[in-house]
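Example is below:
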Amino acid sequence: MRGLCFQLRERSLAGIVGAPSSIGMKIATAISAVFFVTASLRASEAQSPISSSTDFQKAAMRLRENALLKLEPQVVAGTNFRSGFNRYPWKRGIVTTVFWVGERPTANNPVPNYKSSWDTRWAQNYGGLDSPDPAHRRNFIPAKFVPRQNPFYIALPYNDVSRGTTKSEARRAIPWFKQTFERPGKSVLKGRWVAVRRGNRIAYAQWEDCGPFRTDHWQYVFGNQRPLPNLNQGAGLDVSPAVRDYLGMRGKNVCDWKFVEARDVPPGPWTKYGDNNTFVLQRRGVNLFLVDRNNAYGMRKRLE
């Protein structure tokens, strides 16, 4: 009987060591399985006789399998498609202002928005003025035309490109830089998806311009700093009229925001329009790595 127990221990160790796990887990699992099987066999012998060595071996293997099932971690596939939503932290309590494509300069917004930091023909490519006047809007888009770009857009006070080349700090500051960088002077930020929260509502939008006021504050956008003082009470986020309307904003508000991967963006009005829209492009069947590289990796399935 002792010889048979010894053989069973050896088989348990050999079977467990061959499993794909770390060395520490192998040793711990093997030892636990051996003690479990040995103790269970002794208890079984005391309670009921085993008629033959064959029955003994079968009983031992069943006990070993039960031990492994109890010791091995259970992997449960997530059913929530937004299970990766918490990869990036929320920026909380950020003064948020509204801006729009085609906006004329004002005292608190000295830069016109006919062009963006990454698109010198922004208003033309969008299709016209994205009027913020509620009387001129229907279902989150302008009443007079269907925009050729996503009407859900935002601006943050950092630009990774300056004078035709990529800024030196971009490589270490931007979390997804290595994945999406293609060549010097091409932004890895344009079009990235952001979640904006006000109260119990969350809108999703694409990063299409830089501001308010600054284009160099990477310590806030990607770090732990707060927005710096400016003419709009330290505003650190600009949102489009569509984002404003979805969140129920009235002028200047305080919101939270965070980066999200494209795969974690749920269906909504932000997935319907625009030649720059990741989801429109996906429905068209185009190669995202060619036309929307900044979001292509973020659209991959989590288990790939």
